[in-house]
Amino acid sequence: MTAADESGTPGALHPRGELVRRQSAWTRVTHWIWAACLFFLLLSGLQIFNAHPSLYIGQESGFEYNNSVLSIRAERRPDGGIAGITTIWGRTFDTTGVLGFSGSEDEPLGRRVRAFPASVTIPSYQDLATGRVVHFFFGWVLVGTMLVWFIASLINGHLRRDIVPLGADIRGLPGDVASHARFRFPRKRAYSPLQKLAYAVVLLVLFPLIVLTGLAMSPGINAAWPWLIDIFGGRQTARTIHFAVMVLLVGFFVLHVVMVLLAGPINTMRSMITGKYRIDAREGGK
Amino acid sequence: MTKFVLDRRKFLTVSAAGLASAPLAGCDVFDAAVAPASPVRGFMAGANELTFRAQRMVLGRAALAREFAESEIRQGMRPNGSTDPNSMEYMFLRQSDFALYKLEVGGLCEAPQSWSLDELRNMPSRTQITRHDCVEGWSCIAKWTGVPLAHVLAEVRPQATARYAVFHCFDIYASGASGRPYYESIDMIDAYHPQTILAYGMNDATLPVENGAPLRLRVERQLGYKMAKYISRIELVESFSHLHGGKGGYWEDHGYDWYAGI
Questions:
Q1: Do β-strands B231-237 and B102-107 pair in parallel, antiparallel, or remain unpaired?
Q2: What is the pLDDT of residues A96-152, one digit of tens each?
Q3: pLDDT tens-digit series, residues B1-23
Q4: Which of A89, A173, A227, B77 has the most Cβ atoms closer than 10 angstroms to its Cβ?
Q5: Under an 8 A CB cutoff, do A59 and B255 touch?
Q6: Exposure class string for A49-70: b at 16+ Cβ within 10 A, else e
Q7: Which of B10, B34, B225 is the best residue to mutate to test the A interface, defined by the most A CB atoms within 10 Å of its own CB?
Q8: A97 and A210 part of one domain
Q9: A268/A153 same-domain check
Q10: pTM for this structure?
Q11: Is residue A59 a part of any domain in this protein?
Q12: Which CATH code fits B67-254?
């Protein structure tokens, strides 16, 4: 048995160690502001997407030719009913009830023909103008919080200590993957290699990417910084990447919450609220 | 080993139940807070002012929108909004192919004037192949030919108090039960921008009715709804608060931001 196996027994079998100071106030405050921002950005973003629920590759949207990679629409069935249809890379799926056509039968048809359902858009009804107001407000808050977090983390060492994966993390990666696969999550003082990697990808790759692809959709920014849209290969490609990064961030969120539950929700939530985290006894002092 | 399997099974059951119940949570709880008259909505809309200032800071007066090559025009220009205005005046002018059309330019200027379509075509012209970005999210590349608005403004000599050019249009835009006249406004920085043109030609032909004949605006550094079609009259004003809904444009009166740079 290796050392990791000994300390990795799940749940109540963890030997209780001391409470350590895990998260600085900067990390905790920016974490919760981001949580709120991403929630509202996602729901208002889906509202904006619903105004033209198709994604393309290139500068423009093909109306007389096909450069679409995703489209969601409603179609009339031969029997007279309405189906929600989703096409991804030329493959068509019936997504009635979720994408393309959703809502309860007593609602008017006009409200039911919609790409993403009312339960995941702000506002619940179709209203692009309002979706844009909410989206741009939280977009500014997200960017401001990113800047504050980056500067604070650079100064207080969070970035170097917990986020950027170093040589030792790369070497420890196979062992960490094996321990995750066995659902063993030792409570250590430092982040595990997979944790570092996940946070580095989200904070240093996906966050900047979703902001820059958002800006690349702006005709004003296109005129000011023409190179930005060239990096992404055209406005419609930028829009497609913006959507894809959203999907990745939603995936991260699901994984993140699952890991919080598996690693001990009380301990992890406490560390993100009060900053204090209980580590395993054998980890103490290191 | 047995313990590990049980843990995983329990975990999978709980997560499946969680995922299944997630879509049941509705999102209409925020509808009241983001409704047009709500103070929360008003506070959030303040960010649009920040966007405007930030874009003007990085954009400057002269930065040009990207212009494309002929080979990048791969399709016709997608028409949007009104495509067939039915006001009496417009239908009358259309009958004679806009031979009787006159563009009136007035308001806060020294020399208000009006020009026929032929007179506008004899003014200096500019042709540009640009990408039209709709607020809905789609884009379409087309070639536009017209007279630079800067040239027209030089003819009428705007007064120092003129801050906006307002474009009054022939089309009554129908939304719901009632229709309202379409109009738009831009400030003098965009009005004097070299790519801001009053277009009478599109893709090497006369501007079609569905795309805004006889005259439409191109403001290439903003979104499509700023580019008013079916222009009947241009009015130079100090403020647009007395016009229609007071927000400076048809869509602005319906909750969209006045500055459409993103």
A1: parallel
A2: 999 999 998 888 888 899 999 999 999 999 999 999 999 999 999 999 999 999 999
A3: 444 444 555 655 655 555 555 54
A4: B77
A5: no
A6: bbbbbbbbebbbbbbeeebbbb
A7: B34
A8: no
A9: yes
A10: 0.91
A11: no
A12: 3.90.420.10
